[in-house]
Specification:
heterodimer, A: 959 residues, alpha+beta, Jelly Rolls, 8-stranded antiparallel β-sheet, 7-stranded antiparallel β-sheet, 24% helix, B: Neuraminidase, 5 helices, 32 strands
Chain lengths: 959, 509
């Protein structure tokens, strides 16, 4: 098949994209490179020819910025709103000189789809190289010194950048580089459920705006600067500002340039990776499960310059260079807890809340590199962390920075193919002259004279000049297909139509096309995320909002919906009201959206029907309607910055600022009509009020009352009933209180039991394990007993001790056998419920294979301090003997035997087994063991079921 | 072209019933200003029961556990037993039987045990000491998954003739199935064994048995479900929402599903029609009845069958279905056509205090309605309500049954009709439509047609009217209004709307 045929198919962007049967993938690169692309052509849902006055030729003419050379009247210039070329010079982007030179040589090769014409096509190859070189020197002479020494690669940042790139809206126009994320619970509605397939990526590349060879063009830092504010260097807003903060822009830049890094350097790079964690408790958190708040590089094992205060934890990772083989001692001195690990083994355990305390540990090390991890958390008081060592030839001293180097990620990212570039003043001078000669100044304003050519009015509309099949030497050569050329010629032949102003509707359509608003928004049947792109539109977090939470709203009649001031605020002042939506509404630059809100307003004026709402002072009825005694709008809608009782639907107190009151009224009367697919139910179906009590069920009065209430400046001081849920503390007064629900840390079938003695435990009926014990208040039920009751509620009290996940009993053939792993539910077990005794204390029952188990907890004063803890009685009954049954009482970093079958588990938990037979000369049966598996200590208690019958384990728990 | 009014609101219906017959019959206009609820109360009275002071008494499940004792399970996990709930409802005395359970939405009773369907398990409870409090809380079955999501709740039926409880498990987060058997219906048999029975559930609102002992559930408007519906839980069939189908292939569940003989249905096409998809997907079972949204309701809930033998009035063995949002009880007549259930729904009673969720018939033939509006708002306006609906002994003039015929429909009435008005095709309006079957949330009525009522034949005894209709559409809801029909004593119908889901036009006998 020949390329010409393919190009013919590609000419009509819209048709191409509708026609999925085209097999164009094989030649994609060359094809895209040879086709002139505008955003309008890339959007499958926009059919430009459908509207008079917004034809393809005019769009091309504007996007190619023809009026830069072909002058015309200010009125026409304004109408065309031509795309401006990138800013060059000191205010432009810092690009790689190699890339700039190669781009000048062949724009389409370096940036497929570029609208930059080839200005050097008429020159011989050697002359072209010379000109490109000189122009590059001239352009870089304007920029000043660039000191790019590379950027340290960080895999975490790259990962974050990838997530952002695919979520915040970049892939609405650009091709995604990874398949859409399918989360465990997807609240984005009807995103395609079929397993995404790699061919999706190829397919999307063909109808996306290409980015060209970025790795050659930018460094991480220069790309980040561009992404942070694209409008600064590309003022026309075709690449809008995606509201990225500095960190986000850098993360996306690093992601897009992730192929840049040079191979691992042979030299060690001093320093450590650190991660910082927030909201930790009174001990070191489980780092594997805790969310990383930030990460980066530290120069050494020091808190200086790192976030480290108040419920914060840090984890340092690096490589320790050990000079000589031998016995080493390590210390940490910290407030509060710290631990030091070498090659995954804990050497120093200094956990817990305490004053500055030093603890030590010993380890034998070989000479060479060892992985070093130091963890630290801070609870209160002045923070302290010091790590020291001593060993062969090393007196006790702080571990010097020189002995610590980066474990991984110690690689630098540098611009691909970058070559040394030294400004040559002769080439600069020559470049300056060439810049003028090739009339670069017409598009790229560097305060140099522009050379105008034949004005627009005199253009013949024939295939001449720029539109010739082979433009002559000094004429720019755009990469045009025959069809595009035809469209331009046809446009020029009717250029007198430019004198007629565009209708408001056409003007709006025109602007929305140029800025590709249609990539995200549907308006009048055009646009909106379609096909496999849809799956990249996501809901933030777990907002259960479906399509409405994921896909930007349609803009049908938006001019009759939003107040003009609000529309302007959205377009130019970053206003937005949908925090749950992952895709961000970008900023296109004030100049580029100027007139859009007015055009929308005028275009949609006829849709502004129905009466306006009059704000009146009596807002009490509105307050009642919004609250739980009325229509309970707050069941779904956030209100005045406070979360709703259920899903986090749009904060309705923003309505008066945003919405035309007549639209608000129409919407309330028939939500589906104005927003098909909304989950907002009609509260006045066919005009009849669902609530017949308030305002006697008068529909109009009710709607006006809600509007008046929302418009009132007293809203925040008069919140609707039911919005702020008070705590609902469950208090065991005379007998135990049971709470079966989603208790954080105890599984989805948790059974919490609180006692009047102010001790509590939670049993996990998925795993038959004791999950939590704690002191003090039992549970706050308000999370589950208000609204829809989503999510996990932690214990209300203090000193919460978490027990390990997994089965309580297992048959272990020998000490080397690992404890069976279990995920959600443990296999071989079945929960059977509980029976109450005469004090309403439940005795839990379950089976483990053929063994029947019951267990009961009794609050008891335990130990020397006589603190209240639990005495737990586990009773196992087997009809046939079972060998090698063990009870796993604890899994922890540290288990210390204190004598009398009593064990200290990590710092705070004490377990005692008074029923276990003491060691005597005559007894040879199994004893309680503490063993180390997979870096953790396990406390295993033997269960004697070698004879049929019942055996009991008594476990005393204090903490 | 004349556009048929698509929504006959209660208010419009009132106006129509008041004005149209006057025009047709030339009678004196009635001067009634009574609301529909007031007129309904002439026949069916609502009595509100007191609830324990200071207790969040939200529905929940209901079960009579003795001649005069009503067990009420609440969303906050209590089971209360109300003595005197039947004989002296306004003086009901409450005692807490058990608390701390995980949102019990359905109750049943067998051999002296109260069965409570919690989120995580089916539990049975018994008081063995006679102090009125449960001593044994025993797990009967917990074979399904649950992951902490608010939307993973479930409803169960009473025990059927074989001792099965039928359970419908809603989806995770209302859109997808993230835990085993979410989006499934299953049955727990008399031995406590769980039998996966079919996929396709979205957001159930209740499960109940009809007079024949077959189980039905209500499912709510949302993705793959454009309007609320009543669905037969027929083992092996797929009831519409495809997300639960993943469990056919999951190692955790596939063997149990295969052992139960349930076959994986093909993935339905998006933006299609359910009637069309059912031709392609043999497992897909069409809803027995759609409750047109929002004309009939917005959140179909509990299902109960009148087995009182006439103590509840003239609707023996018909089904009653709650609507949580509208705080109503609707009425459903089903018939078996071609081996599957289909039929019509009618408005029945509005004005309940909170969002009607659980419906329960008492031994004396009155109905108890238990409501809540937490998280999902309701018109009733009260956060919760427990109410008795008792027949006042007077037969309202209502459509009694609506049956499909090869060339139309046949209505029977609770009172003899006036032959002139009932025989006049102009006393009726009709339109037909269906819903989009798609992955988006909810959907409009589509493919509207206007069948023509050619002729109405009134039976000699005046108790039924046979409508001969041109243009019945298989797969469409047929919405009929009977504003002009009068009883022999010139009364208009108390409710003149009927919505028949015509999955199959019966063949000529």
């Amino acid at each position: 098949m020949n390329d010409n045929h393919k190009i013919g198919d590609l000419r009509d962007g819209a048709r191409l994209l509708f026609d999925s049967t085209l097999n164009i993938r094989a030649k994609r690169r060359t094809l895209i490179a040879s086709v002139f692309l505008t955003i309008a052509m890339l959007n499958p849902c926009v059919c430009l020819n459908a509207r008079a006055g917004v034809d393809m030729g005019e769009i091309h003419f504007a996007e190619m910025n023809c009026v830069a050379c072909h002058s015309t009247s200010p009125m026409i210039v304004e109408r065309l709103a031509s795309r401006k070329s990138p800013v060059l010079g000191s205010k432009g982007s810092q690009l790689s000189p190699t890339w700039v030179r190669d781009f000048l040589l062949d724009p389409q090769k370096e940036k497929p789809g570029s609208l930059m014409p080839d200005m050097l096509h008429g020159l011989s190859a050697s002359k072209r190289a010379e000109v490109a070189e000189a122009l590059t020197h001239y352009l870089f002479s304007l920029q000043g010194e660039s000191t790019n020494s590379g950027t340290r690669l960080d895999l975490d940042v790259i990962k974050e950048g990838g997530t952002l790139f695919h979520r915040v809206g970049c892939v609405a126009c650009h091709a995604p580089q990874e398949l859409p994320v399918v989360s465990t619970v997807d609240y984005s509605g009807d995103a395609p459920k079929d397993a995404p397939n790699k061919s999706v990526l190829t397919e999307l590349t063909t109808n996306s705006v290409p980015m060209g060879n970025l790795a050659k063009k930018y460094s991480v830092e220069t790309l980040a600067v561009f992404l942070r504010d694209p409008l600064k260097t590309r003022p026309s807003g075709r690449m809008p500002n995606q509201k990225l903060n500095e960190k986000e822009a850098r993360a996306i830049a690093m992601y897009l340039l992730r192929d840049q890094p040079s191979p691992v350097s042979a030299d060690k790079i001093q320093g450590l990776n650190y991660e910082h964690f927030e909201k930790v408790g009174k001990e070191l958190p489980d780092f594997a499960k805790h969310k990383v708040s930030s990460s980066g590089y530290a120069t050494g094992l020091s808190l200086e310059g790192l976030p480290h205060r108040n419920s914060t934890a840090l984890r340092f990772r690096g490589v320790l260079s050990v000079p000589r083989e031998g016995d080493y001692t390590f210390w940490t001195l910290s407030r509060d807890g710290s631990q030091l690990f070498i090659d995954g083994k804990m050497v120093v355990d200094n956990n817990g809340v305490h004053k500055p305390t030093e603890k030590e540990g010993k380890i034998k090390l070989t000479a060479g590199d060892h992985n070093l991890v130091v963890t630290y958390f801070h609870h209160n008081g002045p923070p302290v962390l010091k790590a020291s060592w001593a060993g062969p030839g090393i007196e006790k001293q702080e571990i010097p920075n020189a002995s610590i180097s980066l474990a991984d990620n110690g690689r630098f990212m540098r611009i691909a193919g970058e070559q040394p570039f030294v400004l040559d003043s002769a080439k600069v001078a020559k470049g300056l002259a060439l810049f003028d000669k090739h009339n670069c100044a017409s598009c790229h304003d560097l305060n140099q004279p522009k050379h105008l050519v034949m004005p627009l009015e005199k253009l013949s509309g024939k295939n001449k000049g720029c539109l010739a099949a082979m433009p002559s030497t000094n004429v720019p050569r755009f990469t045009l297909t025959e069809k595009q050329r035809g469209e331009l010629v046809s446009f020029l032949s009717k250029k007198s139509t430019l004198q007629q102003p565009l209708s408001a509707a056409d003007q709006a359509h025109r602007t929305m096309t140029a800025l590709n608003c249609y990539a995200c928004h549907n308006r009048d049947g055009q646009g909106g995320p379609a096909g496999s792109r849809r799956a990249y539109f996501k809901v933030n977090g777990e907002a259960d909002l479906g399509e409405e939470g994921a896909v930007p709203p349609h803009l049908n009649g938006v001019g009759a919906k939003l107040k003009p001031a609000w529309l302007d605020k959205v377009l130019t002042n970053s206003a937005s009201v949908r925090p749950y939506m992952a895709t961000r509404m970008p900023q296109f630059g004030e100049a580029n959206v100027k007139g859009l809100s007015a055009a929308l307003l005028q275009a949609d004026a006829s849709q502004k029907v129905g009466s306006e709402l009059v704000v009146h002072s009596g807002f009490v009825d509105g307050l009642r309607l919004v609250g739980s005694e009325g229509l309970s709008c707050i069941a779904c809608h956030n209100f005045a910055g406070k979360p709703s009782l259920g899903i986090p639907a749009l904060d309705i107190t923003t309505s008066p600022e945003r919405l035309d009151s007549a639209w608000f009224r129409r919407y309330l009367l028939d939500p589906q009509k104005l927003r098909p697919g909304t989950r907002m139910p009609p509260f006045w179906p066919a005009g009849v009020a669902a609530n017949q009590t308030i305002l006697d069920g008068n529909t109009e009065k009710q709607i006006a009352a809600i509007w008046s209430y929302l418009s009132s400046d007293k809203v925040k001081k008069n919140l609707p009933l039911g919005l702020v849920a008070p705590k609902m503390e469950l208090i065991p007064k005379v007998e135990p209180v049971i709470y079966r629900n989603f208790i954080e840390g105890a599984g989805s079938r948790a059974i919490g039991v609180g006692y009047p003695e102010k001790v509590n435990f939670a049993f996990d009926a998925n795993q038959m394990r004791l999950a939590l014990v704690w002191h003090g208040q039992f549970m706050d039920a308000s999370r589950h007993w208000t609204g829809r009751g989503n999510g996990w509620e932690p214990p209300m009290g203090y000193s919460v001790v978490k027990f390990p996940e997994g089965a309580p009993f297992a048959v272990i053939a020998g000490p080397g056998t690992l404890w069976p792993k279990s995920k959600d539910r443990v296999s071989g077990y079945q929960f059977k419920g509980y029976n109450y005794d005469d004090k309403r204390n439940p005795q839990f029952r379950y089976t483990y294979g053929e063994i029947e188990v019951s267990e009961k907890f009794e609050p008891t004063k335990i130990g020397v301090k006589s603190e209240t803890g639990f005495r737990r009685r586990l009773t196992l009954t087997a009809k046939t003997p079972v060998k090698d049954v063990w009870f796993r009482a604890a899994v922890a970093d540290n288990v210390v035997e204190l004598g009398h079958a009593t064990y200290l588990v990590d710092d705070g938990l004490r377990l005692s087994f008074p029923s276990v037979r003491p060691i005597t000369d005559s007894f040879v049966g199994p004893q309680i063991i503490v063993r180390t598996t997979e870096g953790k200590k396990e406390l295993l208690v033997p269960v004697d079921l070698t004879e049929p019958g019942t055996t009991e384990i008594v476990e005393e728990i204090s903490w | 072209m004349v556009k048929v009014a698509t929504i006959i609101s209660p208010l419009t219906a009132v106006i129509l019933t008041l004005t149209l017959p006057s025009i047709i019959l030339g009678a004196e206009p009635e001067k009634s200003t009574r609301t529909l609820a007031e007129r309904e109360s002439d026949y069916y009275k609502i009595v509100t029961l007191p609830t324990p002071a200071g207790v969040q008494f939200e529905a929940g499940g209901l079960q009579f556990v003795g001649d005069d004792e009503l067990a009420c399970a609440t969303r906050t996990g209590d089971i209360w037993i109300g003595k005197g709930a039947l004989t002296n409802p306004t003086e009901t005395k409450w005692k807490l039987f058990e608390s701390g359970l995980h949102e019990v939405l359905s109750l049943a009773w067998k051999d002296g045990w109260i069965y409570a369907l919690q989120r995580g398990e089916l539990t049975r409870l018994k008081d063995t000491t006679g102090d009125g409090r449960a001593d044994i809380v025993e797990t009967v079955c917990d074979g399904w998954g649950i992951n902490g999501d608010y939307h993973e709740y479930m409803f169960g039926s009473k025990f059927d003739r074989d001792g099965n409880m039928w359970i419908a498990l809603t989806l995770t987060g209302s859109f997808s199935s993230q835990s085993p058997y979410r989006g499934w219906f299953l049955r727990v048999n008399a031995d406590g064994k769980m039998i996966p029975s079919g996929s396709g559930v979205r957001s159930a609102g209740g499960v109940g048995l009809n007079a024949a002992g077959d189980a039905f559930f209500t499912d709510n408007q949302g993705p793959w479900n454009s309007a609320c519906k009543l669905h037969w839980l027929k083992p092996g069939r797929f009831v519409g929402h495809p997300d639960g189908n993943r469990w056919f292939d999951d190692p955790a569940t596939k063997d149990a599903i295969a052992a139960a003989g349930v076959q994986k249905p093909a993935q339905p096409k998006d933006e299609s029609r359910q009637y069309e998809e059912a031709k392609r997907i043999p497992e897909l079972l069409l809803p027995a009845v759609y409750f047109p949204y929002p004309k009939m309701g917005q959140s179909a809930s509990g299902v109960a069958c009148d087995m009182s033998g006439g103590k509840f009035g003239p609707f023996k063995e018909q089904l009653f279905v709650g609507d949580q949002t509208h705080s109503t009880v609707m009425r459903v007549f089903l018939e078996m056509v071609n081996g599957e259930y289909q039929g019509a729904c009618f408005p029945f009673r509005e004005g309940f205090g909170s969002g009607s969720l659980a419906l329960e018939f008492a031994p004396n033939g009155s109905m108890y309605v238990f409501g809540t509006d937490r998280g999902w708002g309701a018109r009733g306006g009260k956060p919760f309500a427990l109410q008795q609906l008792a027949w006042a002994g007077k037969v309202p003039f209502e459509i009694h049954e609506m049956k499909a015929r090869p060339d139309g429909f046949e209505f029977s009435f609770t009172q003899p009709v006036d032959a002139a008005s009932a025989g006049n095709p102009k006393s009726y309006t009709i339109e037909a439509y269906t819903y989009v079957y798609h992955s988006s949330y909810g959907g409009p009525e589509v493919d509207k047609t206007e069948p023509k009522i050619k002729e109405v034949k009134v039976a000699a005894d005046g108790k039924s009217a046979r409508l001969v209709i041109d243009g019945l559409v298989e797969g469409h809801v047929h919405e009929l209004h009977l504003p002009g029909v009068r009883s022999a004593s010139s009364e208009p119908l108390l409710h003149d709307a009927a919505y028949y889901t015509l999955n199959k036009i019966p063949e000529k006998q």
